[in-house]
Design goal:
Strand content: 15-25%
Number of helices: 5
Largest sheet: 3 strands, parallel
Distance between the termini: 33 Å
CATH class of the largest domain: Alpha Beta
Oligomer: single chain
Length: 160
């Protein structure tokens, strides 16, 4: 088996554009490394009849075999692992804060959706901001996100 390492830009739109050009380069894909275009890559893989083995895709809906028959996780779902840890420690008031880069804003949104789908309340989903004022507003919003319902308030910072 031969392999090729495909270079993937960090910016989601550019990464997806690059992925489209790789259709003829591979019979299967391990990735994408950018979770921002997992849905699109998986749909393209289905259309191309090429397997996509992912470690980075967060969207729990990708596990529906009827809709995504060429998609497979190579590790447990990151959100299921996180959910198990949160449940074990009885952390119920969760906030997710990301950087402003589209890859992390999208990852934060999908993570929140997945955790909410498993029954966890997410108090805030925000990006940190581009300047001091926006950062202060985000920190104020975190502070005002609600009462602590478990043993601790957990803020998830993306990228980790």
């Amino acid at each position: 088996m031969d392999f090729v390492v495909l270079q993937e830009p960090c910016e989601t739109s550019k990464a997806l554009t690059t992925f489209v050009y790789y259709e003829k380069e591979a019979d299967a894909f391990i990735g994408p490394g950018n979770p921002g275009y997992c849905n699109a890559a998986t749909l393209l893989g289905k259309n191309w009849d090429k397997a996509i083995f992912s470690w980075a895709c967060i969207n729990y809906e990708l596990e529906r075999i009827q809709s995504y028959p060429t998609f497979a996780r190579i590790l447990p779902s990151p959100t299921r692992v996180l959910y198990t840890v949160l449940k074990y420690f009885s952390w119920a008031n969760i906030g997710i804060v990301s950087s402003n880069e589209d890859i992390w804003v999208d990852a934060a949104t999908k993570l929140a959706s997945s955790l909410r789908n498993q029954g966890l309340p997410i108090g805030i989903v925000a990006s940190i901001g581009n300047n001091d004022t926006e950062m202060e507003n985000t920190l104020r919003n975190i502070q005002n996100a609600g009462e602590i319902k478990g043993k601790a308030k957990l803020i998830l910072w993306l990228p980790l």
